[in-house]
Amino acid sequence: MLYALFVHGSPFQTKACHSALTFAKAITQSQEHELKGVFFYQDAVLLGNSFIQNPRDEFNLQAAWQNLAKENDFDLFLCIAAAVRRGVISSDEGKRYELESSNLAHGFQLEGLGSLVSLMNDCDKTISFV
Question: By three-state DSSP, how is residue 78 classified?
């Protein structure tokens, strides 16, 4: 079965990103299931901010997502409208808005809601984490 994950909750105020990561790990360890992609929406897009600095004694959620996606070859999408609104900017968007820098973390990509619809259409199941 092919899965898509749709994550809404803030990585700092909810367990949505943590729960989705646990579910994603279970999918990737399964022989009969596959994860096609993860779409982060609303405050979940904050996970894609490369300027986040975790204390050394805390779990690095961003790195965990980056590593899992790289090892298992699935996409990490951030809703472009939600990301830009929250100050998560790619180099292309930085140029568009005439900003001096960008802060989109490696492994994440900014996409519109059309990419979410496409991802959902390509998968058998979409699981939401709020």
Answer: strand
Q: What is the CATH number of the domain that holds 78?
A: 3.40.1260.10
Counted domains in the chain: 1
**Single pTM value for the model:** 0.96
The whole domain housing 86 covers: 2-129
What pLDDT was estimated at residue 51? 96
Beta-ladder partners of 36? none
Point out the catalytic residue in the list 16, 79, 82, 89: 79
Residue-wise pLDDT for 11-41, tens only, equals 999 999 999 999 999 999 999 999 999 999 9
Neighbours of 118 (CB within 10 A): 14
Q: Respond yes or no: is residue 79 known to be catalytic.
A: yes
